[in-house]
Amino acid sequence: MLKPFDVHVQAEPLTRFEPELDAAGWSTLQAQATRARALLAGRTFWNVSSTARGGGVAELIPRLVAYARGVGVDARWLVLTGTPEFFHITKRLHHALHGSRGDGSPLGAGEHDRYDEVLRDNVEELLVLVKPGDVVLLHDPQTVGLAPALATAGARVVWRCHVGCDTPNAEVARAWEFLAPGLAAARLTVFTRAAYVPPQCADRAIVIQPSIDIFAVKNQPLAPQVAHAILATTGLLRGTPGAPEPVFTRADGVPARVSRGADIVRLGAEPAPDTPLVVQVSRWDPLKDPAGVLRGFALLLRQSPDLRAQLVLAGPAVTSVADDPEATSTLQDVISLWRQQPHFVRQRVHLACLPMGDLEENAAIVNALQRHAAVVAQKSLQEGFGLTITEAMWKARPVVASAVGGLQDQVVHDVNGLLVRDPGDPAEFAGAVRSLLEDPERAARLGRRAHEHVRAHFTAVRHLTDFVRLIERLDARG
């Protein structure tokens, strides 16, 4: 019997945002908190997703739930459980919603039966917990099939799709056809971009962009020397004598130490602390194009052999993300490509699987890696919204991103970062990275503007206000 499990999230006070806002902004946020309490009095706001670790959704939900609980809303997070076959089907749907064939496996009646079977098991437990009038926010294709039973039980069901395709094709249509029975039961739908909204949702869609928590472990301030120490402990940088302890502060305020190492494929020694690093941090997913980043960086080295830069491609340990069955094969493909490179390229490319045994320790490692990077890349072939780029921009790092999907809403070309118009062109990517490495003043200027752009548009303050608007519209449709 497959049952969802509850992820406990500690309440976080909104007062931590007060120093970040002017008087008018703080007053508005307090008013929104009061409105949220009134709208949801006596009701629970449920979030249901497919994994508690790995990927942007698993990072986004707990922070928003924490702040909702901090203002007195009974917000909770449930994670469904599934079989390997179920997650293979939903990964295929994930690719299709991006307009990609993925592994090309079918999405027919048999697959729908197996998808429904897993969700029937999960919904039995949900129907015990969810009461009439509760709000249930279902995340991504793994959960949409829960909507009919929950809606019949009197819940106000919203489905949030974190992915999409700017130019829908036959694969996108195939995914929407598969999801149609569940989608019909959702009272509202939420998308990251207006371009992602399918015709059948046009009259009940709302656009809400994701955000980062600027106070999370992944985004907390780190002194450069401490970041170096964390990366040295993890094996991503060469250690230095007399370095401080590799410490960070947990979400509950308790100091902690990074102690786990990363699994790293490399040839030779760790980079020296003063070596400029080009970094991409993402799941091992072909749509994140880690192989394309490697090819582009190899081209950069061939064109500019005197550049001291090295590349770090980092992602989670491949066994740690339950709903991503392709991670291992994607990583193996990247390792195979790395082995095909000449010696001088392999010496300057590091493939790192970051430890996931302690999620806050993992966040501290990512924080240190992004803060230390000379350039942060996200050369995705498709991207609903790039949280890792937002995190790097908050840290005032110069970024290079593909001009696809939500990345276009985050990065304004040559204002707060650089966009690669053709993500399949390694020469364009190499040129953008080179331009930042060779012009540190320009890179720093873009980084400063990036930080202010995130402050204005992509923090939890804006996101929580969007959710109040969502509840108001949901109740109006009631």
UniProtKB/TrEMBL annotation:
Start and end residues of each Glycosyl transferase family domain: 273-452
Gene Ontology biological process terms from the UniProt entry: glucose metabolic process
Domain Trehalose synthase N-terminal: start-end pairs: 47-197
MF terms (GO), sorted A to Z: glycosyltransferase activity
Top-level taxon of the source organism: Bacteria
Pfam assignment, any one: TreT_GT1
SUPFAM superfamilies listed in its UniProt record: UDP-Glycosyltransferase/glycogen phosphorylase
Keywords assigned: Carbohydrate metabolism, Glucose metabolism, Glycosyltransferase, Transferase
Quaternary state and interactors: Homodimer.
Family classification: Belongs to the glycosyltransferase group 1 family. Glycosyltransferase 4 subfamily.
Name of the featured protein: Glycosyltransferase
Organism, as annotated: Corallococcus terminator
